[in-house]
## 1
Amino acid sequence: MDPKHDKKMDETFGKHVLRKLAKKEHLTFQETEKVILNLKDGNCTDTFSAAFLMSLILNGENEEELSAIIDVIRSSSNRITPQTSVPLVDNCGTGGDMLNTFNISTAAALVAGSSKKIAVAKHGNKSSSGVSGSADFFERIGYPIQDNKVDTHVKSIEKHGLGFLYAPVFHPSLKSVIKLRKELGIRTVFNTAGPLCNPCTNLHSQVIGLSNPNDLDLIPKLIPILGLNRALIIRSQDGMDELSITSTNTVKYVFLEDGRYNTRTEILDPVSLGLTKCSISDIAVKNKNDSINQTLRVVYGCLPNSPKENMVLLNSAATIVAGNGEISFEDALSESLDCIRNGRPQLLLRNLIEDVGDISKLEIAEKTLDL
């Protein structure tokens, strides 16, 4: 794709796109690319933009449409290549499950990163449809999410094994889309495409959580264009974009083997791993402050043997498995528990914030934990 190519969208083309979507027809790669280029450049009216995004959701985006959107986003991103001695992994979900859980994938990233078996390039944003996003957590505890000196985040990953890559910093061309997503307040195609656009050029593996069941068949087809060695595509049976102890879970493994991508599917029951099932109310939170507080409490080992800790252990295990294909879920779960019991995520977070962030913010957050 040539980003300088003139793809300005006119009114006639806009009407063609909306009519096509209204008839439940899919757009071509080129049509989708042209719309997204104009959307990011602010060349679309608010009315068209909202209608386009709503129509895509109602129609259900396909492989060609998503490929075009990912291509536009990645082509205009600030890319980085952190050098790590262990596999570089992301665990970014699509959101949109509307279940008001705490920052599970964020806590899982901290626990998994503290294992030293992988390094984590946690890609994320503030919440557009849920209680709290990963960026809300990292900002509150003093990580410099808005720092547009990308070397800060490269340093975090290389030195500490974990960095947070705030989407607006690494995808500045999507600034015009952020306001629109906030106003809509629901899942859009960017919830699906965003997690597939980690700015690291050398990302090894990824855990991708899905709330939309239709994406379980769609997302594996996109892994080859991302160049990943392995992906775990996950969804709980009750609709969570995480692995859950509230139900069984679908796990789709996509892995590169002998130059080809293969896929296998597993139904993962948390009971088989020794975890006790719970209800969604046991892991729900009231608001952003509660979410951030509960996330930190799990990371600091303040909720031993609780449903919230077990949720994080399960998802931390998935992140470790993604980076190390030879390790079993059972062993990764044991490793994650060992990390929390020995205070490794807490130490990782404190060292990280002392080095690149504002330690006073972390200390304020810690005062609510009764350490």
## 2
Amino acid sequence: MLERNLEYFVTYLTMERGLSRNSVTAYRTDLSDFIDFLQRRRLDSAAAIDREAILDYLGSLQEAAVAATTLARRLISIKLFCRFLAQEKIVANDVTAVMDSPKLWQLLPDYLSEREVEQFLRSFADTGGDPLLERNQMIMELLYSCGLRVSEAVNLKISAVDFDEATLRVVGKGSKTRLIPVGERALQMLRRYLREVRPQLTQSNREPLLFLSRNGRKLNREWIWKMVKDAAVRAGIVKNIHPHTLRHSFASHLLANGADLRVIQEMLGHSDISTTEVYTHVESSRLLEIHHKFHPRA
């Protein structure tokens, strides 16, 4: 159904708007990616496109470290498509009418307060000794305490953990390696996970991955997204969150507690400081504190 709508839209761009072949191809490519994202979540009608679906898609792009310029272009393509669907009465309303571009940081997933993070992580606390639930708890702890992307978490190897140095060696975008400090709580959980939990998920000593499925295989990123959504409901969190929200919260809480932006940039693995700034929100009280402390006329 959505693919048919896309063909109608392409025809509209070509015949009525008179766009060049290159422009039409660019719109088709952007929207095909968006539609593929929706269909993987069993959403295949124009009516299924709502603000949350669009935010989920943008969040998935940010999770994959897609450039801000690409995010902006994808959003513009989606806005034009949704406007067309409303004009043609395929849907009742243009759901993107209130989404202003290019202020993308307003559209990306909310970050959680420290209290909300505690609520969220507590939703994983009652494992009952189930190795799968204990694995899930460990994944969530590392996503927040180390600011990992989902792709980085599912590809973590056992050898990435250095208990002596209390660090995690992470391979990020562009195969760039970085070291991230690991807190004592997470280290204790990792020791127990490796000693008691992971052996219940595989009988093989040759599997290098830290986190495994119930069949001893590599985890699926989409499954972790669903796990986060379900946990947010259990925790009573009404914000639209994704796994990336935990990474976003990691950076925000570091900054709010006085960490240098360059240090946060290093831990997140960003090559450009401007990318790090997208992740950060500083409460007005923190800004006032900095002003009073450092400005000569404060």
